[in-house]
Design brief:
It is a single chain. This protein is about 40% helix and about 15% strand. The chain folds into 2 domains: about 100 residues, Enolase-like, domain 1; about 260 residues, TIM Barrel. It is built from 14 helices and 15 strands. The chain is globular and about 60 Å long.
Length: about 400
């Protein structure tokens, strides 16, 4: 059996372009699907997948570890850059999809079988215009409360919000009070039994992240995400040691050695590896094993398309440290036209029962994908009030 071709199918889905990768084989009717969605880098990922295809077309798709090593180590530059790592991830996920189809088993069965009966999911509230924090703080807090109620009404027992504004390396108490007002509004709206997560999007400096963390600690957050740049391992460790709320990070980390450094410094208690960026299932399982050694929870980053979701859920059914999965369920109204999924979602609690179909358990409709061709993503620019560049 040989890999005969690698195709890339780009599908524009409002905020981002989904980048789907299809690995075809010499066996009639046998192929695998992967995903390498990377906002504002779509064309770079497509080109990187095409470069990697030169390495592995003609190879045996069953030699997954061997092919991963080839993609990572050859071409001289190791696959650490996010564009290259994303391309590797997409192909690797597709190869595991093929492996499951060959075995006629879901992917999680290939890794030792299910370790849980269901996977809990959470949604992202969206909304909450950052520029409104200062101009209309009361209205902004109310908006967060209303969005929180809507998420609970939709069946979720957990949700995440971006309730922290972009700040300069050091500011006064105004942004701290604004963030606290939004979190207070969410907690008062949904009560103590719903889990709330706050995503800082790595906007603050360590000094500001620490202040935000301490201010939000009393509200019983499930986790506090990226309170400073992920490269600032010492800053993350300082914040994680100073607050009760567990710190989460990892969505922008692509190297196993960097995960090791985060874990060794206890810079997080929740690892948010993204299977579409960290090297797919092959490298993701190594990261998960390392997290297990440090007793760090797994809560994968997954705001992308339907292949990423299927992959994140398959991963969840095989990993003992996995606690919850980020999901997108209403990004575009035609999402279900593009994908047929093998897992089932129970609306009450938004829990997912395991896929029973081979591989990832999904199939994509290429005709529907073609109805939504590539469009450049909207360029996002963030500036502080003095005109200096901020983090988006």
């Amino acid at each position: 059996m040989k890999i005969t071709a690698i195709q890339v199918h780009v599908c524009h889905a409002r905020m981002r372009n989904w980048v789907f990768v299809k690995v075809l084989t010499s066996e009639p009717g046998l192929w695998g699907w992967g995903e390498g969605t990377l906002e504002w880098h779509t064309r770079g990922v497509v080109g990187s997948v095409e470069d990697l295809a030169d390495l592995i077309v003609g190879e045996d798709p069953r030699r997954i570890e061997h092919l991963w090593q080839m993609m990572h180590r050859q071409h001289f530059w190791h696959g650490h850059g996010v564009v290259r790592a994303t391309a590797i991830s997409a192909i690797d996920i597709a190869l595991w999809d093929i492996a499951g189809k060959i075995a006629n088993q879901p992917c999680h069965q290939l890794w030792g079988g299910a370790v849980r009966d269901y996977v809990r999911t959470y949604c992202h509230l969206g909304g909450g215009r950052m520029e409104d924090f200062y101009e209309t703080p009361v209205d902004n807090a109310k908006r967060f409360g209303d969005l929180a109620l809507a998420a609970v009404a939709d069946g979720f027992t957990a949700f995440k919000s971006m309730a922290v504004p972009s700040t300069m390396p050091l500011e006064g108490q105004q942004p701290i009070r604004a963030a606290e007002a939004c979190v207070r509004a969410m907690r008062e709206a949904v009560g103590p039994d719903i889990d709330i997560m706050v995503d800082c999007h790595a906007r603050p400096s360590p000094a500001m992240g620490l202040q935000f963390g301490k201010a939000l600690d009393p509200y019983g957050l499930y986790f506090f995400e990226e309170p400073c740049w992920p490269e600032s391992v010492e800053g993350l460790a300082m914040i994680n040691a100073a607050i009760t709320t567990p710190v989460a990070t990892g969505e922008r980390v692509t190297r196993l050695s960097d995960f090791r450094d985060l874990f060794a410094r206890r810079a997080c208690d929740v690892c948010q590896l993204d299977l579409t960026h960290c090297g797919g299932f092959t490298e993701g399982r190594r990261v998960a094993a390392l997290a297990e050694a440090y007793r760090i929870a797994l809560a994968p980053h997954n705001p992308q398309g339907p292949v990423s979701t299927a992959a994140s859920l398959e991963f969840g059914f095989s990993q003992p440290s996995y606690i919850i999965c980020e999901t997108v369920h209403a990004d575009v109204p035609w999402r279900s036209d593009v994908v047929t999924e093998g897992f089932t979602v129970e609306r009450k609690g938004r829990i997912v029962r395991a896929n029973t179909k081979p591989g990832l358990g999904i199939e994509l409709n290429e005709a529907e994908i073609k109805k939504h061709p590539f469009q450049p993503e909207t360029v996002q620019r963030v500036f502080h009030r003095d005109g200096s560049v901020g983090d988006w």
